[in-house]
Amino acid sequence: MTPVFIHGAGASPIVWRLQLLHFKGGLAVELPGHPSGLGCSTIEDYASSVEEHIRERAVNAPVLVGHSMGGAIAITLALRNSDLAGLVLVGTGARLKVDPSILTGIKENYEEVSKLVGRWSVSPRSDPVIAERIAEDLCKVKPEVAYGDFIACDRFDRMNDVQKITCKTLIVVGADDRMTPVKYSQYLHEKIVNSRLVVIPDAGHSVMLEKHRMFNAAVEAFLDSL
Fold it and tell me: Which candidate, 216, 224, 207, 213, places its Cα nearest to that of 90?
């Protein structure tokens, strides 16, 4: 089994650096436009790009690990493809409405909204350096690509479909997640029959960076169970 890590809106594969060090053989997908080239305008188009990435690398028995928008992409692929070995949904939801201040801010002052997203992406108990790095990484992605990402998230809604997911699923969320609150993950857990929910304390939306040891341990235990 190969874990395939899918980053979120305005991010890049670098958000998975602490996982790639831990999970030897794991792959981190660089979505179109992150940071170079053109982005996509829908979750479905991003899902197709991940499908192509997996096919090109001849990955057998992929376990999709998706964060935020990456989780929406993973949900979309799980509903398309019953051959996945497993699914890990991180700080995500069946619906991903975006705060209007983010959409407005990207157009008016990208640097400032990047800092805002950085702050909202971590727990108040986390090292502020993590928020700064998230903001810096977001600024490496073109504003129009980031805007397209957040619009794609805002339009994403699989509330009535997630119960159709049949593969074994791990759902991970930070207890202090402001971007995708714990109730989003609880809904996924209630609807996906073969799922387990892990809530990590003192972590926010970027749980894989804030509490990487606890996160990695949860994912490792899940992979061992498949």
Answer: 207
108, 101 Cβ separation under 8 angstroms: no
Cα→Cα distances 198→93, 175, 188, 214, 215, Å: 14, 9, 12, 10, 9
pTM for the model stands at 0.97
Q: Which residues of the chain have pLDDT under 70?
A: 82
CB 80 within 8 A of CB 54: no
Q: b/e map of 161-177 (b: 16 or more CB within 10 Å)? A: ebeebebbbbbbbbbbb
Tell me if the domain spanning 2-225 has CATH number 3.40.50.1820.
yes
Structure-token match 């994912």, residue found = 219
Cα separations in angstroms, 53 against 94, 141, 198: 23, 20, 28
- CA–CA dist 68, 48 (Å, integer): 17
Q: How far apart are CA 190 and CA 128, in angstroms?
A: 33
